[in-house]
Amino acid sequence: MKIPELKIGNITIKIPIVQGGMGVKVSLSSLASAVTNAGGMGTISSIGLGDIEKSKNEFEKESREALVREIRKARTQTDGYLAVNIMGVLSNAEDLVITAVKEGIKFIVYGAGIPFRLPAIVPDSSVNLIPIISSARVVKIILKNWDRTYNRIPAALILEGPHAGGHLGFSLEQLDDIDNNSLEKILPEVLEVIRPYEEKYDKKIPIITAGGIYTGSDIARMLSLGASGVQMATRFVCTEECDVADVYKQAYINVKKEDIQIIKSPVGMPGRAIRNKFLIDLETMEKKTIKCPFRCLTLCDAKNAQYCIAVALVNSFNGDLDNGLLFCGSNAYRIDKIMSVKELFAELIAGIEAV
């Protein structure tokens, strides 16, 4: 199979692979720049870059400055285009979007919320706005709103299926019925919804599928079904360039299929994570004491939450897995070694070409 390029706006990505944004601090400048240099789209996650135990103003200032540092550091390692991932439920989401755009970022990937105001925050049409969605219904809502309010459509859409890692845009009932909520089922519905808007604006809206995509043949299958590219995250954790602690990567290598479970996050969304001591302890322990100076996640029910998800994710990044949460995709158990981003791309490209 000849590998198609991924065109988003007026920018062309040579290999149609987007590295998913992973917080907290999992995908930073080192990983993002390596992916971009390999021909894909590298993504810096803006999530959790500040100290949540400080005041809201201090946290936002730290987050802003840290994002600037990561973008500028990545620019010393690559000449290619980078994306910045934003979670809509972050209390400082708008500030992070503005900061990324000021730093010259041309891809804003927006998840965990419907981005009704995003075109108002980023009126510059040369900046490619890419919402993450999980259903044709949400696509229809976004397109209708942006068309009427801003006379604009997304530059691309990331369609995340139920096999993804981290927070998921599906109910527990939908996750129990994965076959009827699979990418293979949702993708044709999304392609049908976007068609009239592509015709109206005379622009293609590339659909980038995500969630459970592991091999080159998986990528080829998505492309054959009408996707313009894929997003992968889990596979990039066990690369040399990923900044997480070595024990974090080893947890991925050691995990068995039955150790990957769906959890309920303090933000009220289901998530997929590795069952470890932290999650096992939560089943028997009473609610942990949470110090929350402010809600860094607007949907977080801190009063009733069993733990602080931000602290748990930071602990994992630092290697304290006994007190940390390890998000992962459904195929994490298939990883058996650490390799470079260059090696991973070579494997994936060979797999696509072999189909």
Could you characterize the architecture of this molecule?
The strands form three sheets. The protein has an eight-stranded parallel β-sheet. The chain is globular and about 55 Å long. Helix 2 (56-75) runs parallel beside helix 3 (93-102). The chain is built from 13 helices and 13 strands. It has two domains: 6-244 and 335-354, Aldolase class I (TIM Barrel, Alpha-Beta Barrel), CATH 3.20.20; 246-323, no CATH class. It is α/β, with parallel strands linked by helices. Helix 8 links the parallel strand 10 and strand 11 (229-232). The protein has helices at 29-37, 56-75, 93-102, 118-121, 136-150, 172-175, 183-201, 216-224, 234-237, 246-254, 277-284, 309-318, 341-354, and strands at residues 6-8, 11-13, 17-19, 42-45, 82-87, 107-111, 128-133, 157-160, 166-167, 207-210, 229-232, 260-264, 270-274.
